[in-house]
Amino acid sequence: MKLDVYVPGKKKHADETASPAGKFVFLAAMILSFVILKIIFSVQFAKDSSMEPAYKKGTILLINKFSGISKNDPVLVKLKDRENQAVVSRIIAVGGDNVEIRDKKLFVNGVEQNIISKDDRIFTQEFTERDNMAKITVPDDSFFLLGDNFDRAYDSRSFGVVKSENLVGKIIFNIL
Questions:
Q1: 149 and 50 in contact (C-beta within 8 Å)?
Q2: Sign of the CA dihedral 156, 160, 161, 162?
Q3: H-only helix segments in 6-162
Q4: What single DSSP character describes residue 158?
Q5: Which of 22, 36, 38, 170 could pair with 18 as two cysteines, CB 3.0-4.6 Å apart?
Q6: Do 122 and 142 touch, CB atoms closer than 8 A?
Q7: Domain coordinates in residue numbering, the chain
Q8: CA angle 82, 86, 90 (to 5 degrees)
Q9: CB–CB of 55/46 below 8 Å?
């Protein structure tokens, strides 16, 4: 019985090299994969605690730029007034919906929504719109966003509704 021993760097047979066609197919597949990933997906880091506990600061997020977007989806948004800044938040309301916050209770179209709040304090609207916000109607082709970390989130309570053209995409995967 003859044993065949593998030696790194040493070719077993002269015909084991890849053909030019094989090399071309491999290179084309690599370039195509890179282009598809760059066009369809984006990778970002969660830069603050606005979406805790879902996404902690530093979490790697995979964003699908062409995925359908609906209520409760976590999204990445580019703010028009802040160049190079993106915000991770959750869609709470879409065009035509009414949104109101009364004593740290969120209402969308008059129905109370569940939120998680760890801070028992309730601030007046004169101080901040974090806990009390007058009813607004979200314009067509726009979204109202809230961070999961209700008490510390930078979201539509601070920067207003977001037009759909400012949405980068839907968060589809995260790595802690």
A1: yes
A2: negative
A3: 20-40, 156-159
A4: H
A5: 22
A6: no
A7: 66-170
A8: 125
A9: yes
Cβ pair 156, 51 in contact under 8 A: no
- Considering the entire predicted model, what is its pTM? 0.77
CA dist 120 and 108 (Å) reads: 22
CA torsion, ordered 155, 145, 171, 64, to nearest 10 deg: -110
Q: Which of 134, 137, 104, 96 is nearest to 122 (CA)?
A: 104
Helices (H), 3-121: 20-40
Report which of residues 127 and 42 the model is more confident about: 42
* pLDDT tens for each residue of 152-161: 888 898 889 9
Phi and psi, residue 37, nearest 5°: -65, -40
Q: Which two tokens stand for residue 155?
A: 């979201």
**CATH architecture classification, 66-170:** Ribbon (2.10)
| Paired tokens of 74 | 């976590």
